[in-house]
C-alpha cells in the first residue's frame, strides 16, 4: 500500500524534526482535549434539550387531560343519551385538545377505550387524528396507563418517519361510558435538528480551534526552534573545523543569552585549539628538527664506534665489552631516531602510501625468514600456516613488512622459547595475518595499552632485541593508513596473538576478518612439546 512507502520517511522526519514533533504532539493532544470537551457539551446539550422538551410535553399532556375531562364532565349524563351526540362530544374533545397543544411539529391525538372493563349503557367509539401512528402505543404502555388513573405517563418512541418522539398517555372517565385513554404523540424532529446544528457547530468550531492551536504552536515553535537549529548548525561547523563561525546575537532574552554564551565558548575553544595546534606544530617541528640534527653527530659516533668495534679483539676485555655495548646502543639509537621521524610524519599528517599489488603470503615468508636466525637463537620455532591469501592485494609492502617485523620481534621477545605461528587467510573482502606466540602473555588491562607510545608491560624486564617502544604504535598507524585493523588478544600464561586485517581492494570496506580473535589453535604439528 502507498502509506507503507511513506511510513519510513514519516518516522525519520519525526525523529529528526523537533518542530514537526512538537506541533504534531500539540495538535494531537489538543484534538483529544477538544474532542472530549465537545463530546461532553454535545451530550449535555442533548440531555438538556430532551429534558426541557419532556417537561413541556408533560405539562401540555396534563393540561390536555384536564380540558378533556372537563368537557366530558360537562356533558349530559342521562341514560338515553344519543350515541351520535356522544360521538360528537368525542370529536369536540379531540379538537379542544389539539387546540391546546403548542408543539412545533403538531400533535397526533387518539382516544381509546380502556380494555377489560365491563359493558356500560353508552359507548364512545375510539377516535384518533388522521395520521396517528397506532404502532407506537404498545400494549405495555396501555396496561400502565390503565393502572395509573390521574397520572400522565411518558414514553420515548421512534416514529414511522424514523424521527424521535414521545407518547403521553393518561386516563379519562366518561359518564355512563366507562374509562378511556387519551394518547398524545409528539414529534421531536425540531429538537433533533437543533441538537444536530449544535453538534455541527461544535465540530466545526473544534476543527477551527485545533487548526488555530496548530498554527500558533507552529509559529511559537519556529521562533524558539529557529535559534536552536541555528546553534546546532553552528556547532556542526565548529566541529568540522570552521572555528570562525558564530551565532548572531539579537535582543536580551534567553536565546540571546544562549547565543552570547555559545559565542564565548566558541571563542575560548578557538583560542585553546589554536594554542594547542601551535604547540603541537612546535612539538612536531622540534622532534623532527632534533631527529635530523642528531643524525650528523650520530653518524660520526657510529663510524667511530664501528672502528672500535672492528678492533675490539685487540683491546683488553673490559674495553672490548665497552666497544660492543657502544656498537649495540648506537644501532638502537639509529632505530629510535628513525621511529621518531616516522611518528612526527604521522602527527603532521604527511604520510602517503605507495600502494602496489603484493602477494602477502610471500611477504610473510620473507619476514619469517629474516627473523629465523633471531628466533633460533631464542629457541623459538617459527611456522607459517596459509590456507588462503595467495592473491595479490593493494598494499604498501614496505609498511606491511615493518608491521610484521615488529609483531615477530615482540613474539620472539616474549615467546619464552615456545613456538610462534604466523597464520595468513582471506575472505571476500579482507586478508588477515595473525602472529601467535605461547609465551608469558598479558593481562586485559595491559592489552588495552599495548599500542601506546613507549609503553612496556613490565618496565623492569630488559629488552634483549632492542626495541624502541614505538614499534606497535607505528604499526597501528600503518594499519589505519591502509584502512585496516590491528588488534590484540592476550591472556597471562597462554600467550599473545596480534591480528592484522587489510582490505583486499583499497577503498572497499572490510566486512569481517577471516581469522578469529581469540584465535583457534592452528592445524599444524608443533615440534615443541611445550606448546
Could you give a short description of this structure?
By secondary structure, the chain is of the alpha+beta class. It has helices at 2-16, 18-74, 83-100, 139-146, 189-239, 254-310, 317-348, 360-378, 397-414, 444-449, 471-481; strands at 107-113, 127-128, 153-158, 164-174, 178-187, 356-359, 382-385, 392-395, 420-426, 430-437, 485-491, 495-503.
Structural class: alpha+beta
| Major β-sheet annotation | 5 strands, antiparallel
Shape: rod-shaped
Element-by-element helix/strand order: HHHEEHEEEHHHEHEEHEEHHEE
How far apart the termini lie comes to 63 Å
Could you walk me through the main structural features you see in this protein, from its secondary elements to its overall organization?
- The chain is of the alpha+beta class and 531 residues long.
- It folds into three domains: 174 residues, 2-Layer Sandwich (Beta-Lactamase), CATH 3.30.450.20; 93 residues, Signal transduction histidine kinase, dimerisation/phosphotransfer (DHp) domain (Helix Hairpins, Orthogonal Bundle); 152 residues, Histidine kinase-like ATPase, C-terminal domain (Heat Shock Protein 90).
- 55% of the residues lie in helices and 15% in strands.
- It is built from eleven helices and twelve strands.
- The strands form three sheets. A five-stranded antiparallel sheet has the order 2-1-5-4-3, with helices on both faces.
- Helix 5 runs parallel beside helix 6 and helix 8 runs parallel beside helix 9.
- The protein is rod-shaped, with a radius of gyration of 52 Å.
